[in-house]
Amino acid sequence: MSLERIADKIVDTDVLVVGGGVAGCPAAAKAAEHGLKVTLAEKAKTDRSGSAAQGIDHFPGFFRRGVTTKEFADTCNRYGPGAFFGGWSFANRTRLYRQYAAGEWAVEELEKLGVTMRWDDGELRWMDAESHWQGPTLRVHWQNVKPEMAAGVRKRGVNVLERTMIVDLLTQNGSIVGATAINTRTGEFIVIRAKAVVIATADCSRVFDGEQPHSWKYKMRFHTCPSSVCGDGWAMAYRAGADVSNMEQSGQGYRFRDDLTLSYGNVGNEGYECMTLTWDGIDLPRFDIVAREELGRRGKEPLYYSLEELPEDFQKRIEVAYVDERMVSFKISKDRGFDFRTHRFELMDNRPFQLKHAPGIYVDPNFMSTIKGLYAVGDCVQGCHAVASAATMGFLVGDTVKDYIKKRSDPVIDEAQVESQKEVVQTLKAVKDGTEPLELESAIRYVNTRYIGLLRSEGKMREGARRLASLRREFLFKLMAENPHHLMRALEV
């Protein structure tokens, strides 16, 4: 059987970028600038996709001037696996140093791409350094960063396939040769031949329950773009044979109980520390998860963040950050009478979330995985540092992937591999009156949150594994896709 008879559409390209967020767009644009034929596959619309879809207010990821490689290495050695930046301890040090050293170059590249980097007065606005080695953070008006990036990508001639989800990667003799995909509006089955693939699919927050409120209607309520954080990039890399590491690392959920009040990332990014209070007004020092459990036993919860004692100039800056990063949330809060200057923010219980700085696809200093031709950038990479490093990594890969492409011959597709991947799609479409994707996903998330979240034991891990096995045995074969959009959700599950 020829490939043309299996696929509804065949796309030939030098580079396939999976994911059109703040990592994927720079990678695609820079590769296209070098004359490569580039295709970008995005599940949503590139103009408002990815973790920065609503906007973002700050751009870190720079070295303090004069920092030495030894100073950086000492910092990496000092952070333990339980620290928030645990990724520094495990990731490839040369790659980490490289992405931070390229921070200022990435700012120049973003401006060339058409992204607004300067403040209202036309100058770059730098905030104080966050640590003894990490340089200043750039304050940005990034409410429209995604529309600007999408326009820049199209201007450079990238073939953008929107509403397109990658089903799985294609390999031949230990190298990447492309991927299969579906159009989530038409159901069209697509084969993409590519000499290199760049995965830029964010982290995997959807492995755990979402933020409050906690009901069926709000199952997709996550701090970042829920469609981006389902873990499909990690899964396709793993199935292709790429190494993943530190997958057991998760963060502790000191989040706001209702994230509609204020974006978590807006607080404390200009050198100020918020007050943490018990329900009866006792001001607490910074505390760890064990201390939080003790407070619960002593009847001191709920706990709150408060901005009320911070200076007026900070209050004004936080309002600007609020609008840049969560404009819609800001309006909702105002409409319901919430004033972030005087109201306190209730902290959630210890809800786990996938820590973007530690787990993920392992890559070398050139951001290539352990599979030839498979690169990874952004939050799906082990030891990344959120949006700033995501954009920098994208530019670095886009700038160097041409060297790999020059050595590659035309990809040869294994038709049997394509057929098996299409069979997965056809099976989901054939099920009638079965299990809805979000219904099964909700059950999976509950098990993960309850049994393999933050506080683990052998007993909980065993019970979690038993329950996941039961879900797989009883419900996976019943998973159905009533339409192409549900087909995307089913594939995510």
Structural class: alpha+beta
Q: Rg to the nearest angstrom? A: 23 Å
Mean pLDDT: 85
In terms of DSSP E residues, the strand content is: 15-25%
State the separation between the terminal residues, measured CA to CA.
Answer: 30 Å
Q: What would you call the shape?
A: globular
Count every beta strand, where a strand is a DSSP E run of 2 or more residues.
Answer: 18
Largest sheet: 7 strands, mixed
Provide the helix percentage. 25-40%
As residue ranges, the low-confidence spans are 80-87
What is the helix tally? Answer: 16
What does it look like?
The chain is α+β, with helices and mostly antiparallel strands and 493 residues long. The protein has helices spanning 3-6, 24-33, 69-78, 87-90, 93-101, 103-113, 145-155, 232-240, 289-297, 312-325, 327-335, 386-407, 415-430, 437-451, 458-475, 484-492; strands at residues 9-18, 38-42, 58-59, 125-127, 137-139, 159-162, 164-172, 175-183, 189-199, 244-245, 250-251, 275-277, 283-284, 304-306, 345-346, 353-354, 360-361, 374-376. The strands form 5 sheets. Strands 1, 2, 6, 7, 8, 9 and 18 form a 7-stranded mixed sheet that branches. Strand 12 and strand 13 (283-284) form a beta hairpin. The protein is globular. The two termini are 30 Å apart. 45% of the residues are buried. Mean pLDDT is 85; it is low at 80-87.
